[in-house]
Design brief:
Strand content: under 5%
Pfam families: Flagellin_C
Number of helices: 11
InterPro entries: Flagellin_C
Distance between the termini: 21 Å
CATH superfamily of the largest domain: f41 fragment of flagellin, N-terminal domain
Number of strands: 4
Number of domains: 2
Protein name: Flagellar biosynthesis protein FlgL
CATH architecture of the largest domain: Up-down Bundle
Domain Flagellin C-terminal: 256-328
Order of helices and strands: HHHHEEHHHEEHHHH
CATH topology of the largest domain: f41 fragment of flagellin, N-terminal domain
Strand order of the largest sheet: 1-2
Helix content: over 70%
Organism: Rhodosalinus halophilus
CATH class of the largest domain: Mainly Alpha
Shape: rod-shaped
Length: 335
């Protein structure tokens, strides 16, 4: 019978423990090789993980700011496009109204009225646009349209005008309705009196996208195009002289609103530039944080592969020695 000695048993345990340690380390090196980052961050950082935690927070904050910046960029671009649509719809209208008022035939007056209605509807449609489910020009009330429908406002104005046929009277009714505190505030503008919240962009910077559909320039554009529309309205059937006079008044209103509208777009353009600069700053900050984080946790692929190869050879050698010892007999020992 072969005698089992305590030394042999202890040696077997030692070999098995070494094999487990080598397999564990080999698995860790394989993980590092596949992921490119240290398997044991606590050991890699000598237990000091505060710097890594700070960098993780910086990267997460940059991601949030990037989302804010992207949303602000999309919103400002949509607002700029909407204001451009208003400008494109109303700028040529002033010329059309002046030409018709100067001596156009009845058909030209009707055509100018139709053009005015189209411009009014386009303006209302542009100011009622939304992006990402948020109304663009309704201030803090971002869940609904900024304005009542074009037909609804024209119906209200038509009822206000009633039997008035004098150009001065009709113009005053429309002007009063669109003036602050008038009917436009109660039933035309549906948004909030407070502006939309500014968008934080980090570093104490923020984007103020606070243009509302009740801004003075937009009130004037709406009032002028609505006046020209109603001047040629068949239901009101105003005298031709009144129509011509109202066309002149509306053209004058559109002319004075033009520079104000350009000013609104210029202010918005300044915010767009601020948002673009913030995007570059946020990306630079995020890139620096990512690089610093990578320097803490990433491993060299060549070094990881070399260590993995060395561990594989060690493990193979240990298995070979273990196998050889398990086959030893007295005869092989004394040879």
């Amino acid at each position: 019978m072969t005698e089992v000695r305590v030394g042999d048993l202890a040696q077997g345990f030692l070999f098995r423990r070494q094999a487990v340690q080598l397999r564990t380390e080999l698995s860790a090196r394989g993980q590092e090789l596949s992921t490119g980052r240290a398997a044991d961050l606590t050991d890699r950082l000598s237990g000091d993980t505060a710097r890594l935690a700070a960098l993780d927070r910086e990267v997460a904050l940059a991601a949030t700011l990037r989302r804010n910046q992207a949303q602000a960029a999309n919103r400002s671009a949509a607002m700029q496009a909407a204001l451009g649509r208003v400008q494109s719809a109303t700028e040529p209208l002033a010329t059309t109204l002046r030409s018709a008022a100067a001596g156009g035939l009845a058909g030209e007056l009707a055509a100018a009225g139709s053009a005015a209605r189209g411009a009014f509807e386009d303006t209302v449609g542009a100011l009622n646009q939304s992006t990402a489910g948020r109304s663009l020009f309704a201030g803090a009330a971002t869940t609904g349209p900024a304005l009542a429908g074009a037909d609804a406002m024209l119906d209200t104005l038509r009822a206000e005008i009633g039997a008035e046929t004098e150009a001065a009277g009709v113009a005053q009714i429309v002007e009063d309705w669109f003036a602050p505190g008038g009917g436009f505030d109660s039933s035309g503008y549906l948004g909030a009196d407070s502006p939309a919240s500014p968008v934080p962009l980090g570093g104490g910077d923020q984007a103020a996208l606070d243009i509302r559909a009740d801004a003075p320039a937009l009130r004037q554009v709406l009032a002028a195009s609505a006046l020209a529309t109603l001047a040629a309205d068949a239901a009101l059937n105003l005298p031709e002289d009144t129509v011509r006079a109202l066309f002149d008044t509306a053209a004058e209103g559109l002319g004075s609103a033009g520079p104000q509208l350009i000013g609104l777009r210029a202010d918005l353009g300044a915010e767009e530039a601020r948002i673009e600069r913030a995007g570059a700053r946020i990306e630079a900050s995020a890139g620096g944080a990512r690089r610093a984080r990578a320097s803490l946790i990433e491993v060299d692929g060549y070094e990881a592969a070399t260590r993995m190869e060395a561990l594989s050879q060690k493990l193979e050698s240990l298995y070979a020695v273990t196998a050889r010892l398990s086959r030893l007999t007295l005869l092989e020992t004394i040879r």
